[in-house]
Amino acid sequence: MRPVRxxxxxxxxxxxxxxxxxxxxxxxxxxxxxxVLAKWAHLKGHGFWPQLANQWDSRWYLGIANRGYDDVxxxxxxxxxxxxxxxxxxxxxxxxxxxPPGHRASTGLVLSVTASLLAAWxxxxxxxxxxxxxxxxxxxxxxxxxxxxxxxxxxxxESLFTALAAWSLYAVLTGRWVWAGTLSAFxxxxxxxxxxLAAAVSVSALMALRGxxxxxxxxxxxxxxxRMVTGCVLAPLGWLGYLVWVAVRLGRWDxxxxxxxxxxxxxxxxxxxxxxxxxxxxxxxxxxxxxxxxSIVIMLSAALYAVCVAQxxxxxxxxxxxxxxxxxxxxxxxxxxxxxxxxxxxxxxxxFALAIARARRRTALLVLGGAALFSAYFGAYMALVWPxxx
Length: 390
Prior knowledge:
The chain has helices at residues 8-43, 48-53, 57-67, 87-95, 104-131, 133-144, 158-173, 177-187, 194-215, 223-234, 237-250, 255-262, 271-283, 289-310, 315-329, 338-341, 350-358, 361-384. By secondary structure, it is mainly alpha-helical. The longest helix is centred in the N-terminal third of the chain and has 36 residues, at 8-43.
């Protein structure tokens, strides 16, 4: 009798083999972006490693890994590092513990690249689960060719957050509620938009719980119901826990929100987004390319969400992307990073993935190849020409 091979290791290898084409495609388009950046940086007399590992927000995270968090709020604008969530700098410090502090930038970069591979795998898994292998592969590549995809291989938190979000949503879709809640809790320690994922997991768990009770599929205390309740409770704990910790550290109940106000980053109902959109696309005679692309990403994301609703995507995905859009577009902070803030909203790319997957192979390759070339060019432009943070 042949032994039954159905252990965790076997299932993992089988899932990895299924995802291999998507991961290879993702790595290929990201390597193209790095090659273009390296060549452009060489022509300008710059090294490309600092552009990836030690610029803008990366320095804030490295500062937290090296020196910890502030314990006072001075009120001076854009100076308090409590605005940055702790999981990424904690991992940077943990994985670089045997090394001198000067190596932490490299550790952070390796962490981001590794997280991006896990994220691409999770993005594929969601697309594969919903629409099949081809759509999942296209979706993973599309996530790797968004205009600001270079950030995925920088010392930033977007890759880590997307990995946690993608696998948490996949866990919801497959009924693994404890995993979904646990991953959501970690995502809530990674970025402030973790609250969007927490909402998706908790609301989905409550919907599933209500459906199970209505159908008589379980009773209170049965394993399925207990797992749903556990996932629902776990999901927001990371985000809430950090807010409570900041409140205790600063000695005021609104500590985190006070910090955000010093960064001019509070909800304003979308007033600043609309003002910046109008100014960029209407009033400026020669607007910056970067701001034009950010504006297009914002408008396209809103339109794609309407398409996703019309296509009746599963509620967890719609709740996550809807909440993400509300948080990003209705905040009054700086305008230019908003395309990056929307990067974890990969379900918004599903309409494109479906269309490309159904097209002829030559057409699909031309579309993805053109997108990869533009993403590579724009990533290098973002790092070497655009004078501010991505």
